[in-house]
Design a protein that fits this description.
The protein is built from 9 helices and 12 strands. It is α+β, with helices and mostly antiparallel strands. It has a 6-stranded antiparallel beta sheet. A 4-stranded antiparallel beta sheet has the order 3-4-9-8, with no helix packed on it. It has a two-stranded antiparallel sheet with strand order 1-12. It starts with a helix and ends in a 5-residue tail after the last helix.
Length: 304
């Protein structure tokens, strides 16, 4: 049987190794929340269009058998989609400034268009328009862009009161440590699972985000197994390690509190609540775990 000191060190080292993983992975998967909501309203016949909410990239697809020419910032031909595929008109000033990503199907093109850019500082809502020529007929593709206000942060701050109280009680009463560890650990695990699923299954999620979510759930599951099967001190240490993981994962989701649009399958306020519960319960569990770890080292007799 490992000594409490060795077990504590093992849990702490494992937790430290897990901390960077979510943050590093999340940088490659895009935003979890954004400021603007972009909509597509008028789409000409034989054309389909959509906007990716994460980075406002525009996707335009021409129906088979039809030709669509996208006009640039100066009204010049910019892109051409026809039965032969997609052609970028390199002489266009727009083509020289836009970042393009062509689909292999040859009927769709994705790019970042400045006409879907930021609004002015005091502007709440605006419209965007992109000229098209469909089968030789001039037309337009248009929509709206809206700045979504950030909700008040007070509900999420107030949510931390019971978790701070739970940590204080557990630190003052040894008998409360084990039940506190179990409850906090269960809440962290549930919050990590809900948050991971919400962001991974959102239509805006990339494959990188799926991998990130899988890692988070697996790491949380391992800690929960130790939490469920260990002794009182072991459970507190496992909850502390799980709290470190929860803090690392939650830190990558902080933008949900500072932006109006949350890119999650869950409703925005539900996603924010899950992240808030994750952060507060993780902070409480990490605090209790650290205190138990320090107490274990103090209580262990020195070898002669």
């Amino acid at each position: 049987m490992p000594t409490p000191r060795r077990l504590a060190l093992l849990v702490t080292v494992v937790a430290a190794l897990l901390v960077p993983a979510p943050a590093g992975a999340h940088v490659r998967t895009g935003s979890v929340a954004v400021t603007y909501r972009v909509g597509v309203e008028h789409v000409p016949r034989f054309v389909s269009a959509s906007v990716y909410p994460g980075d406002r990239a525009l996707r335009v697809t021409a129906a088979p058998g039809h030709t669509v020419v996208v006009l640039g910032y100066l009204g010049e031909p910019f892109l051409r989609i026809d039965p032969r595929g997609v052609t970028v008109i390199r002489a266009s000033p727009t083509a020289q400034s836009a970042r393009l990503k062509l689909r292999s199907s040859g009927r769709s093109v994705i790019w970042h268009d400045a006409r879907l850019g930021d609004l002015g500082p005091n502007v709440r809502r605006g419209r965007w328009t992109i000229g098209l020529v469909v089968d030789g007929r001039p037309t337009r593709l248009s929509g709206t862009i809206e700045r979504v206000p950030v909700p008040s942060s007070w509900p999420w701050i107030a949510l931390g009161v019971p978790f701070v109280a739970a940590a204080v009680v557990a630190l003052r009463r040894r008998r409360a440590i084990e039940p506190a560890a179990l409850v906090l650990g269960a809440l962290i695990g549930a919050a990590i699972a809900a948050t991971a699923a919400g962001f991974a299954f959102d239509a805006n999620a990339s494959e990188g985000r799926w991998v990130e979510a899988g890692n988070e759930v697996v790491f949380a599951a391992v800690a929960l197994v130790v939490l469920a099967r260990g002794r009182a001190e072991t459970r507190a240490l496992a909850a502390g390690a799980l709290g470190l993981l929860g803090l690392a994962v939650g830190a990558t989701k902080i933008p949900v509190f500072t932006h109006g649009v949350v890119l999650s399958l869950l409703p925005a306020d539900v996603a924010r609540a899950a992240v808030a519960v994750m952060l507060w319960s993780s902070a409480a569990a990490a605090t209790v775990g650290a205190a138990v770890f320090a107490r274990t080292l103090d209580d262990e007799p020195e070898s002669v």
